[in-house]
């Protein structure tokens, strides 16, 4: 069985979400549409009120990979924060 290429581990904090959005030259609403979340959710991530989790975390990583974000952004070898936040993040 072929070994699956593993995505880089990246911590999606407020600055990382903002950096990805700016790298893609999108506003919050456009990134929200790309990720399938509300603009308010992207805003809350960028303000550090909540962190992406669950499906949003996986989609962020896929979008980052497709946009070559990992090639220009510093990577954190620790796993993304998966601590549940109350009511937001997907």
Report what the structure shows.
There is one protein chain. By secondary structure, the chain is mainly α. Helix content is 49%, strand content 0%. The protein has a domain at 14-71: lambda repressor-like DNA-binding domains (434 Repressor (Amino-terminal Domain), Orthogonal Bundle). The protein has five helices and no strands. The longest helix has 13 residues, at 54-66. The termini are far apart.
What is the strand content? under 5%
CATH superfamily of the domain at 14-71: lambda repressor-like DNA-binding domains
| CATH class type of the domain at 14-71 | Mainly Alpha
User: What is the CA-CA span between the terminal residues?
Assistant: 33 Å
Proportion of residues in helical segments: 40-55%
List keywords for this structure.
single chain, 90 residues, mainly alpha, 434 Repressor (Amino-terminal Domain), globular, disordered C terminus
Question: Any chance you could write out the topology, listing elements then pairs?
Answer:
Elements: H1 14-23, H2 28-35, H3 39-47, H4 54-66, H5 69-72
Helix pairs in contact: 1-3, 2-3
Summary of the model, kept short:
This protein is mainly alpha-helical.
């Amino acid at each position: 069985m072929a070994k699956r290429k593993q995505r880089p581990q990246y911590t999606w904090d407020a600055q990382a979400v903002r950096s990805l959005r700016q790298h893609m030259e999108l506003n919050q609403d456009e990134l929200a549409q790309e990720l399938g979340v509300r603009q308010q959710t992207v805003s809350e991530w960028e303000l550090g009120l909540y962190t992406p989790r669950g499906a949003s975390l996986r989609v962020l990583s896929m979008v980052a990979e497709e946009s070559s974000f990992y090639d220009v952004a510093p990577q954190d070898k620790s796993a993304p924060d998966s601590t549940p936040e109350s009511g937001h993040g997907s």
